[in-house]
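User: Let's play a game. I give you a shape written as tokens, and you guess the letters that built it. Ready? Here's round one.
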């Protein structure tokens, strides 16, 4: 296996974001490209990442590979890539070989690890509500809600989308109309943990747009797409009577 990325920054950014949720993953490499699907230790959230083969300047594999990787170690190496660096990724027995080429050539070896558990796939659901908006706006709304509570409620109608949070004394609310954002929706209401959403919004670093897919008291899927690269999060709803 030998892969080469001429611009590894997006990979570095995504690995950093994913490492907020999980520390060890199965990195899959097949003819379609590179991907990760993982569930956080609390079994509340899932993350999925896919980078297609055509984004690599070199993509040579003899068979499908599943590589057990510690993300903290991988993140530390990827951060050594500078603007203009090229990155090569290879497997050698039980090692992941990473090469960074810029003014000088640097080589790193990371031990591959065994990861217990079943293989996970991103669930395919039908959603009653799909909301598409600027990532920066979504970041602001989630950060506003986090000031007053540890959870927020999404309410979507055919022409309106509301995000609100209530604490013991304080509240925050943001409302968008279909004139401001894209809303494809029936009537849906669901409540989610802000601890997790605050991690998800870091996906704004790779994409200027976000798509929110949810239904009544159903897991939400948050998609950040840039070109053919996809970073998705799934979060279970928080079922409670009151804020």
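Assistant: Ready! My guess for every position:
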């Amino acid at each position: 296996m030998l892969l080469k990325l001429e611009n590894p920054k997006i990979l570095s950014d995504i690995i950093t974001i994913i490492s907020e949720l999980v520390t060890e993953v199965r990195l899959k490499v097949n003819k379609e490209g590179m991907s990760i699907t993982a569930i956080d230790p609390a079994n509340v959230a899932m993350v999925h990442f896919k980078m297609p083969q055509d984004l690599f300047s070199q993509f040579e594999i003899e068979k499908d590979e599943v590589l057990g990787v510690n993300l903290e170690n991988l993140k530390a190496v990827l951060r050594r890539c500078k603007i203009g660096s090229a990155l090569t990724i290879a497997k050698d027995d039980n090692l992941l070989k990473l090469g960074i080429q810029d003014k000088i050539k640097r080589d790193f070896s990371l031990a591959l690890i065994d990861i217990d558990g079943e293989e996970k796939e991103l669930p395919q659901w039908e959603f009653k509500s799909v909301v598409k908006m600027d990532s920066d706006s979504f970041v602001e709304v989630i950060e506003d809600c986090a000031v007053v509570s540890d959870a927020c409620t999404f309410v979507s109608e055919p022409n309106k989308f509301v995000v609100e949070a209530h604490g013991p004394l304080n509240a925050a609310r943001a409302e968008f109309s279909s004139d401001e954002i894209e809303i494809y929706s029936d009537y849906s209401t669901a409540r989610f943990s802000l601890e997790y959403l605050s991690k998800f919004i870091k996906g704004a670093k790779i994409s200027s747009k976000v798509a929110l897919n949810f239904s009544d008291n159903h897991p939400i899927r948050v998609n950040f797409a840039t070109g053919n690269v996809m970073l998705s999060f799934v979060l279970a709803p928080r079922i409670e009577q009151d804020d």
